[in-house]
């Protein structure tokens, strides 16, 4: 179980750091306003659009990847063991 925890934690930290970088660059208009949760630029260029898509993908990958290794895989393993014992 420790290896699943560390895989999920690694995904959360790595993808979360990538999201923080992209959000810091594109969603922080000033230090007095909302930081990391502001709005994206209204007329982004091609590279900005790629970075925004990458940032959004990293955010959801961090959340879903950690949940997959912390919740989904252990539940599947326990269900397999319970099924094998019952059989």
Automatic annotation (TrEMBL):
It comes from Halorhabdus tiamatea SARL4B. Residues 1-86 form the DUF7314 domain. It holds the Pfam family DUF7314. Keywords: Membrane, Transmembrane, Transmembrane helix. InterPro entries: DUF7314 (IPR055738). This is DUF7314 domain-containing protein. The chain crosses the membrane at residues 9-26, 46-73.
């Amino acid at each position: 179980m420790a290896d699943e925890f560390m895989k999920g934690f690694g995904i959360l930290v790595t993808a979360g750091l990538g999201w923080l970088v992209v959000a810091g660059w594109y969603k922080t208009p000033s230090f007095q306003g909302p930081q990391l949760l502001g709005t994206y630029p209204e007329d982004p260029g091609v590279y900005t659009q790629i970075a925004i898509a990458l940032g959004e993908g990293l955010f959801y990958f961090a959340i879903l990847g950690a949940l997959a290794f912390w919740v989904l895989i252990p539940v599947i393993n326990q269900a397999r063991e319970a099924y094998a014992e019952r059989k």
